[in-house]
Give the backbone structure.
Amino acid sequence: MWKNMGLTGKIIVAMILGIIVGLLINYLSLNAEGSFINTYVTNGFFAIVGKLFVNSLKMLVVPLVLISLICGVCGIGDIRLLGRIGGKTFFIYMITTALAITTAIGIGSMFGIGKGMQIATKAVFEAESAPPLIDVFSNIVPSNPISAMANGDMLSIIFFAMLIGISILMVGKPAKGLVQSLELINEVILKMVTIIMNLAPYGVFALLAKAMSELGFDLIWSLLGYVAVLVGALIFHFFVTMMVILKLTSGLSVTTFLAKMRDVQIFAFSTSSSNATIPISLRTVTERMGVNNSVASFTIPFGATINMDGTAIMQGTATIFIANLYGVDLGIAGYLTVILMSVLASIGTAGVPGVGLIMLSMVFAQVGLPIEGIGLILGVDRILDMLRTAVNVGGDAAVTVIVAKMENEMDVAVYNDPNAGAETMFDDHIDADSERELSAVFSDNLLGSEYNEIKQSS
Ligand code: ASP
């Protein structure tokens, strides 16, 4: 049965199984420090398989973003259009993030979460410093593109890729061969994504089983108000606010969007990283939703870095919660500062697990809330990070579709076809004929024939 199941089906089954196994381990208290299960299963087998999977996704992010964005810029062919798409995308990303945090503050205030609560916690939050905003902007231009790539500095990589693309366009016709080669390299990287995607069921299972086995349920109960408001705001923002915006601005079907986003959101949920999800997001919006690669290769990595609606919602909710808990009245000016700071904070921080809390410390410092307060919500952040990352990547894809539709850079027939791209995206078979043809290229060339001669004479 497993063999005949489609990849999406397998991923969903793996997700459910992972959650069940993890919760069972948790419920039966098998994950105690030093126990066999803890050492060899959750921190052994599950940890290794999960890490291998996340690493293999991350491995592809930088080459994919670099090459597909160069191809994207060349594909657009018009530098002014590029500027317009960039401006629009940035504007919509900022507006939706501001809406997200406002929703969270609104719902949080309505329920008065944290008022009159007493919580004792041993968790201490060590505030790591978020990058100063000035550095974020000045580092958009990398002094060393290789180190930017090595560090995965997305904004620098985007800048460098766009500059290469624009320069290729300026060279014009003589660069045709180069563009064709880059397109081919892009194809090859997309095939690598396919291979990794086919391993997803195992990775997703291991990541979720590990995460669930480590969940602290007592903590969730004691922080129920915070967790419930946060989850409610995440659901409201993605399913109501974003979908209304998608419908009103593009006229496209919301149910089609949600159905096609399922895989992407499972990847985001299990890896807790918008960055690691970039390869899947990019392929989904282009191959399954018909967005032109010229738009998506820019908007998706850009969104993974600067657009974090789910994270903004966490920050809004956490601010209300901690302010109420410590009896601090932030007032309208305080809330406006929170909104502004969260939007700005989201610009510079990459989509990796747990970064939201670092950004939160920046927001707290600005409005004078105690940073130690973050220690209170630390224990439940792992699972909430998974949920908010799914909302983060959902926002990136929705805005990508909106901008592409506005700019007429999408194939609506592909978007509306429920099966579009489903097969090609997951197809990892090797065609025997093309394999033979390619190996013939090798044996025909100089190195190949010399090699064969040496081999025969030895
Ligand atoms: N994990 C989130 C992401 O990758 C960021 C965060 O909120 O911690 O989008």
Residues 145 and 160 are 7 Å apart (CA to CA). The two ends are 49 Å apart (CA to CA).
